[in-house]
Fold this protein.
Amino acid sequence: MLAACRRLFAVLLLCLPAALSAAQVGQAAPEFELRGLDGETYTLAALRKRGHVLLVFWSTHCHTCHSLVPRLRNLHRAWRGKGLVLAAINVGYETRKQVAQYARDNELDYLVLADDGHKEDVILDYGLKVTPTFVLVAPDGRIVYRGSRLPDVERHLAR
């Protein structure tokens, strides 16, 4: 556990310069191609075809992330098929197998992306500093919200 925390801290320190130029509100969201727990490969471009995309960058070791699971589950159920895709992207140093077990144990019924080979790319591309980080991407690819709090989805989708 301590070794994993040290690795994550080192990656976040390396990301600090990137965070200064990270994609911000109004800018294009960085594209990605990540594997889901279902074995399928997902791209941001494909997800955007279904509407707004709420990216939730999280870790199984993040207590705040864990406390938000019921709210995320409710948000997903309320907006599924109504113009919002929720994609939880694991950026912690737990293995794909550990993420899958966490998803089962906590009944995550929304899309969970856990691609061990591309975590660092996503961390750098999005300039992540903390978990959770929420990024709401409009269908045109622009970031309309970025922050550490769950956005007011209804307000953003009404625009």
